[in-house]
Specification:
Elements: H1 2-25, E1 28-34, H2 41-53, E2 58-64, H3 72-77, E3 87-90, H4 99-110, E4 114-118, H5 129-135, E5 146-150, E6 156-159, E7 173-179, E8 193-199, E9 206-207, E10 213-219, E11 230-239, E12 242-247, H6 266-281
Parallel strand pairs: 1-2, 1-3, 3-4, 4-12
Antiparallel strand pairs: 5-6, 5-9, 7-8, 7-10, 10-11, 11-12
Bound molecules: zinc ion.
Length: about 300
């Protein structure tokens, strides 16, 4: 009898240990979507994928949309199964997806899926109302929605459609990113100001701008054809049970294939990895690396 009990306990203990290990080994499932972009998506998708995979916490699939001039039936065949993933990364800047894809994507986010928009991904999907809602601020004209900026005291300024500038950016330059929410899991532990590598500093983004949680901003200097305001660089919006994170950092132009300097910033890579983990799970375990940029020093991933 005793031996049977011992055997049972041993089996139970082994089963629990096995389940715990399996749970720990469970990776976050990511789908990167690319295919149309006025940026160098063919080189940036592999870099984004590498950033995630080298943490050991993610498995990554890529779905490439048909080309912009593809026939309708080619688009009809493109319909990723979002339900297989925890988070979608958009490296896509093209027309709104076909309606059935829109609907299943909206459902995916509403039911708790994550979305991370990188740089020009917020230029995409003109006219897709739900995408505009979940992204909050987009590359749109001055009349196309609200503008959200921060004055010199970092106080929020909200301008209605038609007032103030629309989307744009001056010449690329290095600039400080200012973390205004140091309690959020994505930004927790980052210095309050850190020097980003040369990038486009988006300004005048427009959209519904509801439920915006801005985590980081950057000063858009008028000497760099900017607005004289701090502009949002990183924010998130709840959508149903889901979380949508957008960063406008990370410009890599069509001819920047070797350099990709904006995306090789340690700050960008850290934001990206943590945003993906947080959008998928609501938690962040990925640490801030030792070589993170400081207020006056950039840090580049070679
Ligand atoms: Zn760009």
């Amino acid at each position: 009898m005793k031996a049977t009990w011992r055997f049972l306990f041993a089996t139970l203990a082994a089963a629990i240990l096995f389940a715990a290990n399996a749970l720990a080994a469970e990776k976050i499932k990511v789908l990167i979507i690319d295919g149309i972009n006025n940026h160098n998506w063919k080189d940036t998708t592999p870099l984004l994928r590498k950033y995630l995979e080298e943490t050991g916490k993610f498995t990554v699939d890529v779905s490439t949309t048909p080309a912009s001039k593809a026939a309708k039936d080619e688009w009809a065949k493109w319909h990723p199964d979002f339900s297989k993933y925890d988070v979608v990364v958009s490296n896509y800047n093209g027309p709104a997806w076909p309606e059935p894809v829109q609907k299943s994507f909206e459902r995916f986010i509403r039911e708790g899926g994550g979305l991370v928009n990188v740089h020009a991904a917020n230029n995409a999907h003109r006219g897709w109302k739900e995408f505009e809602k979940m992204t909050g601020l987009l590359w749109r004209g001055p009349g196309d929605g609200w503008r959200l900026a921060f004055d010199k005291n970092q106080k929020e300024v909200k301008l209605p459609p038609g007032k103030g500038p629309g989307a744009g950016h001056g010449p690329q330059h290095g600039f400080q990113v200012v973390v205004i929410d140091q309690e959020h899991p994505i930004t927790k532990g980052m210095p309050s100001r850190w020097m980003h590598t040369r990038d486009e500093l988006y300004h005048g983004q427009r959209g519904p701008a509801n439920d915006m949680h801005v985590l980081a901003i950057a000063f858009s200097d008028q000497t760099k054809r900017g607005t004289g305001y701090y502009e949002p660089m990183l924010w998130w919006i709840p959508y149903g049970k889901g979380r949508v994170v957008t960063t406008v950092l990370g410009h890599v132009g069509k001819n920047d294939s070797k350099e990709m300097v904006a995306m090789r910033c340690v700050g960008f890579a850290t934001i990206f990895r943590r945003a993906c983990e947080w959008a998928a799970t609501g938690k962040v375990t990925i640490p801030i690396p030792e070589n993170f940029p400081t207020a006056d020093k950039t840090a580049i991933i070679k």
